[in-house]
Every structure is written in C-alpha cells, then in structure tokens.
C-alpha cells in the first residue's frame, strides 16, 4: 500500500493517510496524489462529499516531511523546497475553497502540514485526545499551510500567543481557537463515517458533537490579550517582562517566556507580522498563503530553517544558534523576509496580471509601481518631472499611459492636481477600467474625481495610504479605501501587493476621511510624545527608563513604540538618522490642515487637531522644520522653556 489510500465508497471520496509509523507525515508525493483526487471528485456527480482520515492512534498528520527539505537545502538546492511549498499551498487553497463538503477526522497529533490538510475544510472533527499545534517557529519557519489565517481569526490575541510559543491545543481548545468545528468521541467516528458514505450528507455531525468538554485557554484569554497585544515581538517581550503580581499570572508569564526563548526570534516576529496583516474580514486563504510563501521562499537561504531543523531532528542537540537574539532583532530583518517576491510570487490561478498605469512616480509612487511590476503586472508610468521606476515603462503623456490600462493609479500632491489629472485621463481610459487615487487630498476633491469617473462609466476608489516611504518600498502600506464593493474588489489584489492591510471604509471619499482622522491622531500623539520626552529630560528621568515604562503602560502608542522620536531608544526610526524624513514635517502639516478644513466643513470641534496644526505650521514655516521628519519636534521642545 502507498502512503495514502485513495478510493470512492458510496457517495464519498475517501482519502486515508497510511504512514502511521511516521506519524502520517506529509510527503511531496502524498500532496500531489491528494490534489489529483480532489480535482477529479470535484467534477464527479457521484461523489457528494470527501472524507479525510488517517491510520493509527498517535497522529492524523504530525507535519510535513522536513528531512528531505533539510537535505536539499543544505546541498544548496533551494528550488526543491520552494516547489514543495508552492504545490502544498496550492493544495491547501483547493481544500479551503472546495465546492463540496470535506470532513476531516483528526486524531492524535495534528501539526504543521496536518493543519493544512485538515483544518481548512468545511467539517473538522477532533476528539479529546487530539493535539493540534503550529510549532514552526521552533524550527525557523512561520505557521504556514494557511495556519496563519486560522491564528489571525482566533479569539483576541490567541493567534499571536500560539505562534510565538508553539504551544499545543487539546480537542476542546482546538474548537475554541477555530482549528476544528466539533469535538466528537472517537468511538463514534466509524459509525459517522459509514453514515456519510451512505448518505453523502454531513448534517448529522453537529448533533453528535460533545459540547460539555471545556478547554483551558478560555480561562487564560485575559492574560493572553494583555501580554500579546503588542504590535511587534519586542512589544510582547517588553510586556511579559513587566508582569503583574498574581501568582497564577506570574506562572503564565514564566511559561510563555520559557517557550518564546526556545524559538527563532526572526520567525516569531515575522509570524506576528503576518497575523496582524491578516486580521480583518477581507483576509482569505489566498492572501495568507501568499504572505507565508514570501517567508518560506527565503527561509533556507536567509532565515533560520536549516539551523532549526538541524537542532531539532538532525543533531537533536536542541541548541539552535539563531541568526538574531531576542533582544537584538532589527525591524528591517522582518521587512526583508516579507517583501513581495515579484516574479516568484505564489500564484494559485492561471493569470491574474493586469495592465496598470501609474501617474505620479515620486518618493511614494515609484516604489509602489515597482512592487506592482515585480509581482508580474505590466506597469506604464508617467510623471511630469520625468522620474522613473524600476520595471516600469515610461509613457510620453498621461493619456498615453492610461489608454490600454485595466487600472489607473494616481499618487499626487494635492486635491487641485487630482482634479486636473482626473479630468485629463478619464476621457482617455477604456470603458470599464478602474481609477484608484492613492493621494492624500481633501474629501471633496476625492468625491469630485469619483463623480467624473462614474459619469464616464468607470470604477473609482480613493485609497490613501499610511506607512511612509519605508512602507512603500517594503510593501507594508495600509490602504484606507472608499468606493463601491465592486471597485474595492478590483483594487484589493493590488493593495495586497503594495501593502499589508486594506480597509474598505465606505463609499467614495470615506478613505480620505479615514486618512485625515488617522493622521490627525498621529500628529497630536507625536507632539505629546515629544513633549513627554522633553519633560522627562528636565525632570532627570532617563529616556530608556521612560520608554520601558510607557511602551508597556497606558501611554503606549505607535509614536512611542514603533516610531520613537528619541534617538537610540526603541526600534530604529528617523530619529536615529538625524531626523531625515520618513514622513516629512511639511507633509504632516498638509494632513493636519486637511483635517481642519474637513472639521470646519463638518462643523466638528477639534481643538487638539487645531493646536497640532498650529504647532507644525510654526515648526515648518518659522523654525526650519521643513525637510525634517515630523518627529523632529523633540529637539524643538528640548530647546524651549515654559515661556
């Protein structure tokens, strides 16, 4: 018998893993065989559902067969692993999107590749002895095979907790976390399978479930949310290093820190970043797999995978020498592992490429256009300054750029220019195309452009961004989008290439409204953060001590934790580069002025936003702040007294 037994019985297609002595570890050949079977059954009217189970008591599937991946990787053959992961991920997507019910019966260990097989299907069954986990960070990977999506959808911050610690779930906890649907005692499984075979109807499964068994994780959820709610791995570690004094809580923190200290810092940080990018209703299995593949594609050559496997299963010394320490992981290392892969991007469909025109190839637009080109799209660009972007073909005029484009993207300085460009390019665009404006402009200009597009039979999305030039380069921008559902659906795959998150905020103009509100908060909180550091200096409080307290206390903010304005404190930021701009002070002034323009039009009282706008106006126009980062408010406050 082969490693997988595939057959049809009654109304069911049946797949049984038969490598019980190897804990049913998933091999490359098994993946391909399972994919072939489900492809055939999808078109077979006699097959009403699929049953997926495994022989033996110890494991449904304890993961992928990583020994072969290690051997090929050590020999410098990275292509084998990349091909395996790509083909396995394609199978995971097909299982998650399958047009017929699939019922997985998962006993014993369900880890890694086993999660990809059994935990995305329509009906997922466990029993009290099931043990589910995503232990990848312990061997230098991230939770993959779509597991990151399940973690992103888990209650509260349970996903971050499980990804960082690699801890296990019993059957009841697996249902709680979202890895399974029903806990059913195993002695009932055979009768249920026979009923499924006879009827092809999975409905009776819910009635057979045991709803009385309770897991342990619900009781820990409040601690998990408290300590694993940070934006980065560093935030989480800082939080764990400042625990409360409850005895049970201290035990929880100690257990979590012990687990984290075993795992790859690079893998944990990337796993947390992936989970954060997937959190929200718009994420799906394809987005999760594409993000995971960015990491696994690089895992052998640039990550900790080979060293993690060596320490775990080759030499078994349990003493991996990770590339980075838990306290010395640079943020850029995470960004580099999760950059778009360009022509090597994971593709699950035949052809999803578009003809794209990009108008405005400045500091933001050029890297955004480059990332689209690297992902395989055909991009034609135009900029009045004659600037270019890697992989982008330049057109002589804006009209020439847009005439064959499926999508036109603009990144422009202000609302007046947006109105002018829209009036210029909309008549030249082909019927049914989509105009996406990523500029930060006033709400009325966005709505005016939307009206022009709609009148011409085009779709329109206003999608201003947050994340600065670094986010544009690394493909980690956040898009705040306004427009119809259909227009957003067209734009979303492109947002996923250029950024880490896209939120559909409402109809046209809603994206600009969200951006204006967001940046008003950012401007106000940065001023408060700079004021607090200047005050701490004059009170004799060490800056590092202040950061250690505030970054894990109620003063936590993005301005403090991710973009600290004090040089040498927190993650690297423009403050560590003489305040050379990541986000220039004059751009913050522009956004704050937009917020006050909108507030006046809406008759909204925004005294803090108004004060922030006045301070940045003074800083930029009277105090040589132009050309400096918006966090350079700190040296300004350092030099000033109360009067």
From TrEMBL:
Domain Enoyl-CoA hydratase/isomerase: 13-325
GO molecular function ontology, one term from the record: (3S)-3-hydroxyacyl-CoA dehydrogenase (NAD+) activity
Residue span(s) of domain 3-hydroxyisobutyrate dehydrogenase-like NAD-binding: 509-634
PROSITE patterns, A to Z: 3_HYDROXYISOBUT_DH
Keyword NAD belongs to the record: yes
EC category: oxidoreductase
Family the UniProt entry places it in: Belongs to the HIBADH-related family.
Protein name: 3-hydroxyisobutyrate dehydrogenase
Organism from which the protein derives: Thalassovita taeanensis
């Amino acid at each position: 018998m082969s490693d997988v037994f595939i057959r049809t019985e009654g109304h069911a297609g049946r797949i049984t893993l038969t490598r019980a002595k190897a804990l049913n570890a998933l091999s490359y050949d098994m993946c391909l065989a399972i994919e072939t079977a489900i492809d055939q059954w999808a078109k077979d009217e006699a097959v009403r559902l699929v049953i997926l189970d495994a022989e033996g008591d110890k494991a449904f599937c304890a993961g992928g067969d990583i020994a072969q991946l290690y051997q090929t990787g050590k020999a410098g053959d990275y292509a084998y692993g990349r091909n395996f992961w790509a083909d396995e991920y394609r199978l995971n997507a097909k299982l998650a999107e399958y047009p017929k019910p699939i019922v997985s019966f998962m006993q014993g260990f369900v880890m890694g590749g086993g999660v990809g097989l059994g935990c995305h299907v329509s009906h997922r069954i466990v029993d009290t002895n099931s043990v589910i986990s995503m232990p990848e960070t312990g061997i230098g990977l991230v939770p993959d095979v779509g597991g990151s999506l399940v973690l992103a959808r888990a209650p509260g911050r349970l996903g971050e907790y499980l990804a960082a610690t690699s801890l296990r779930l019993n059957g009841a906890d697996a249902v709680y976390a979202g890895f399974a649907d029903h806990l059913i005692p195993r002695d009932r499984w055979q009768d249920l399978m026979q009923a499924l075979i006879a009827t092809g109807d999975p409905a009776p499964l819910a009635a057979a479930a045991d709803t009385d068994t309770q897991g342990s994780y619900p009781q820990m959820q409040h601690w998990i949310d408290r300590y694993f709610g940070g934006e980065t791995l560093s935030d989480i570690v800082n939080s764990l290093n400042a625990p409360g004094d409850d005895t049970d809580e201290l035990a929880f923190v100690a257990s979590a820190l012990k687990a984290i200290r075993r795992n790859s810092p690079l893998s944990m940080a990337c796993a947390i970043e992936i989970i954060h990018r997937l959190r929200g209703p718009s994420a799906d299995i394809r987005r999760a797999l594409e993000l995971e593949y960015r990491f696994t594609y690089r895992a052998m050559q640039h990550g900790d995978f080979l060293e993690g496997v060596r320490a775990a299963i080759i030499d078994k010394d349990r003493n991996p020498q990770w590339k980075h320490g838990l306290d010395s992981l640079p943020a850029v290392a995470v960004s580099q592992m999760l950059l778009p892969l360009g022509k090597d991007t994971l593709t699950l469909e035949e052809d999803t490429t578009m003809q794209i025109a990009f108008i405005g190839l400045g500091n933001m637009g050029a890297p955004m256009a480059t990332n689209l080109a690297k992902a395989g799209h055909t991009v034609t660009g135009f900029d009045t300054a004659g600037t270019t972007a890697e992989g982008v073909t330049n057109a002589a005029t804006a009209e020439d750029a847009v005439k064959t484009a499926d999508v036109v993207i603009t990144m422009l300085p202000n609302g007046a220019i947006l109105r002018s460009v829209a009036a210029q390019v909309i008549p030249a665009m082909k019927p049914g195309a989509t105009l996406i404006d990523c500029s930060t402009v006033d709400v009325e200009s966005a709505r005016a452009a939307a009206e022009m597009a709609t009148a011409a039979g085009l779709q329109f999305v206003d999608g201003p961004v947050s994340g600065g030039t670094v986010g544009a380069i690394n493909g980690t921008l956040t898009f705040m989008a306004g427009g119809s559902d259909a227009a957003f659906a067209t734009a979303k795959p492109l947002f996923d290439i250029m950024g880490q998150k896209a939120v559909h905020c409402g109809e046209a103009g809603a994206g600009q409204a969200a951006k204006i509100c967001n940046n008003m908060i950012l401007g106000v909180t940065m001023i408060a953060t700079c004021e607090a550091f200047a005050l701490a200096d004059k009170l004799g409080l060490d800056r590092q001590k202040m950061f250690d307290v505030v970054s894990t206390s109620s003063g936590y903010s993005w301005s403090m934790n991710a973009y600290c304005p004090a040089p040498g404190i927190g993650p690297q930021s423009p403050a560590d580069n003489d305040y050379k701009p990541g986000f220039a002070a004059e751009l913050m002034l522009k956004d704050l002025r937009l917020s006050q323009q909108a507030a006046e039009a809406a008759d909204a009282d925004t005294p803090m936003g108004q004060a922030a706008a006045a301070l940045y106006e003074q800083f930029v126009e009277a105090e040589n702040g132009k050309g400096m980062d918006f966090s350079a408010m700190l040296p300004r406050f350092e030099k000033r007294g109360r009067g």
